[in-house]
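Subject: for your reference before the review

Hello V.,

The reviewers asked for a structural picture of the protein, and I figured it would be easier to keep everything in one thread rather than splitting it across files. Below is the amino acid sequence we used in the manuscript, unchanged from the supplementary table.
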Amino acid sequence: MLLKGKETANQIKEEIAKEVEAIVNTGVRAPHLVAILVGEDGASKTYVKNKELACQKVGFSSTLIRLPEETTEEELLNKIEEINNDDSIDGMIVQLPLPKHISENKVTQAIHPAKDVDGFHDVSIGKLTKGQDTFISATPYGIIQLLDRYNIETKGKHCVVIGRSNIVGRPMSILMSRSGNPGNCTVTVCHRHTQNLEAFTKMADILIVAVGIPEFVTGDMVKEGATVIDVGITRVDADNSKGYVLKGDVHFDSAEKVAGYITPVPGGVGPMTIIGLMQNTLKSHQAKFNG
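And here is what came back from the structure prediction:
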């Protein structure tokens, strides 16, 4: 069965839009999200555009700040500080990847934790690790909601996460092992260098793949009836009008035959990631106006 992230995301957007409408009707301004895009990366432009469209759909104010490729690290950090000090802005994201001369770590740590709606700051990740209320990284947050909306039982299940990034893999493992639902899983974290990886994936009731290698996981690595969450999305050269096709980290055709549930690429995790971002922005706005 397909886990239709796009359809689920549209449902949640309608719910957020109603909430925002109610907020605005009380005389309070709408939530405001700012995105900073440095350079001309094609995929990044697409991602930022999708986030802008989502803001429009739910009634948020949105601002896109475009900076040239040659923007210095200092100039970007100064812009972030300016936004940190602007009370009219609730959330800020800096689209990754950044040009090589700019430190992604410096940039993500420069964003004030109260506006860190991507959930990348050390404070956000630290609070998540301790089970405290915080901004959850947008992709893991979206995945959790997708599992919840499809009523997928996670308690007592074995969840295998392939990938150990601070953006997806690590926070995902924390969320799936936490008390609550979705959660209460036994979690194994693997990666591309794990020996005998198939032995782990074949034990997974829930398999979450975020390794960044197209079609890395094939159907013969998936347990019968497992829930498969494909986080990957890579442009692969193809002889078509676009010049590429989008591939996930899972070989969809073979995995679909054995999986109980599976996310498509595109239309699976991607739209839910944007939902996580929208909900974090709303959360930041509510903290400011509701105390």
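For the response letter, the relevant points are probably these. The chain has a mean pLDDT of 96. The radius of gyration is 19 Å.

Happy to draft the paragraph if you're swamped.

O.
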